[in-house]
């Protein structure tokens, strides 16, 4: 597939993919730092995987509440994990750190007219710290990520891989893959710290490959193999992460897994506050359930 791309659009997509692959290793969380978080005991004094995952679910709730793009959420998670993998953060400060990373991502990705005021963001998030606290933490985060807010994310790879596959399919077969479903699966994976140890390209291709297997789209298998080869992804790595993604999505679909709760944000906004908020970002989205497969 990759070797026979002929359309201008395909060539542009391939150029974008090459650029992302070249930049992929930059601005990623330190795996050794993430492992320390995973191994930490939950004693109320140290950052743990459970606390990190709960914080990311809160950020996903905010993303849904404001109707922000998945790219914004993906970047917020990247910033949070980069910071947590470098710094020893006390649990009591996690909310401020998480919201600071989220606000940086929002200001980096979203249109200026859709960026909420810091006061509104804090109120809706139900935190008690001040705008000054948030701004101070923002500066600390920026310093620790070397002022490099932009990063290569799994969402960017997901978009490109999906577009390359679609571009080389006959028009009548382009509905085989549902991008909304793939997005929802990525969001679920972001809520588990283990997936921040995967290369963004590997995580994105694992999600797509698993979905293609689930839907038994045999005609797309060759495309996945070509993308894997072009991206220089080891077969064992791809299989390893596919298995973890499959396990995560199975658990996420069960009742045992806690999911982001937009309702808890909805009730905190009084009528008076709602009138003061910009209409463009007072949008209540549905919980991020994963769409059903098309039969």
Automatic annotation (TrEMBL):
Pfam family, one: Cyclin_N
Matching SMART domains: CYCLIN
Zinc among keywords: no
Stored InterPro entries: Cyclin (IPR039361), Cyclin-like_dom (IPR013763), Cyclin-like_sf (IPR036915), Cyclin_N (IPR006671)
Domain (Cyclin-like): residue spans on this chain: 57-143
Domain of life, per lineage: Eukaryota
Keywords annotated in UniProt: Cyclin
Alphabetical GO biological process terms: regulation of cell cycle
Family (UniProt): Belongs to the cyclin family.
The protein, known as: Cyclin-like domain-containing protein
Lineage: Eukaryota, Metazoa, Chordata, Craniata, Vertebrata
Gene: LOC100348496
